[in-house]
Write a structure and sequence with these properties.
It is a single-pass membrane protein. Keywords: Cell membrane, Membrane, Protein transport, Translocation, Transmembrane, Transmembrane helix, Transport. This is Sec-independent protein translocase protein TatA. The chain is mainly α. It has a domain of 32 residues. The protein has two helices and no strands. It is elongated and about 55 Å long. The relative contact order is 0.07.
Length: 57
């Protein structure tokens, strides 16, 4: 899905985000997004690790 965006689409999204949120709020939003993504990855990893440890019948 993201591979269809391309460079012009990505630039447009970044410009719109800059206009909507302003330059002071963007770093904070990026950090929040990164933390959320990291927590999601960790929870998925924990679930898959738990599934791998389960005894097989």
């Amino acid at each position: 899905m993201l591979s269809n965006i391309g460079v012009p689409g990505l630039i447009l999204i970044l410009v719109l985000a800059l206009i909507i949120f302003g330059p002071n709020k963007l770093p904070e939003l990026g950090r929040s997004f990164g933390k959320g993504l990291k927590e999601f990855k960790n929870s998925v990893k924990d679930i898959t690790d738990d599934h791998d440890d389960a005894p097989k019948k």
